[in-house]
Amino acid sequence: MQPHGPGSTFPLLFDDEAPLPTVLPEPFRQIYQGDWHPLTVADRPYTFVNFVTARDGRVSFAEPGHAGGGDISGFSAPDRWVMAVLRAGADAILMGEGTLHSEPDHLWTSAFIFPDDAAAFAELRSYLGHRPQPLHVFLSLEGRLDPAAAVFAQPDIQVVIATTEAGRREAEARLRGCAARIDVLALGETGADLHQLTQILYRQYGIRSLLCEGGPRVYGAMLHAGLIDEEFVTLSPLIIGEHPGKPRPSLVEGAGFAPGQAPRSTLISLRRVQDHLFLRSRWSYHHR
Fold it and tell me: Residue 285's pLDDT is what?
């Protein structure tokens, strides 16, 4: 297991996590300058998010061809490498249909985001006890998913679509005959019940670690439901702003919290690579 890494290590500025047995193999710890200890959560998956944000908190230029996080990070190799590590440590990856629509050629795997270390990440998944590819989970309101998206052409990837009853019928009709193994779950009348989804993933699919990669409305809904345990954020040196009438989404959208009731995070560790900061935080309502 010999990862090449992104061309630099991740100098650790501080780490407040209590000493624990090692999880990552030594070659990965040498590059990351430390370890990653997923939490143990009862009766549902340990759920964590990964985003890159501009200094003003926005996560997308929201322009054709420039909607993804790569434009925000400046296509940073260290950011992509950390993303690949987190994908390697996840049983399943959760996205909203908007993320799929904006990145139809994407596969939510370590090899896709950092192909230079594909072999090392495959070994890491095996070492951590995960199946070769993470379960891909999409939230969809109406089931209007593009059957031409790359993920649906992969016979080695299993996909779960969480939607409504009407969305189930639409998704099943659209995706009939696709090469991927696809399960469509109707989990509500007006939207997918996130608590029910995490219970199904835990009990029926054996998911113990769930990575949420967006978008901001999915993060907001999961945070509002109290289902997020930890957050990994890359803080980019860019400020992107927005034009009047052309909003650009921030880290959390679609959910608001009253004064005194907002969830509070505790910063666990901080790394720096050149002008990018890599933060790991833990949400207080899941303090363990």
Answer: 59
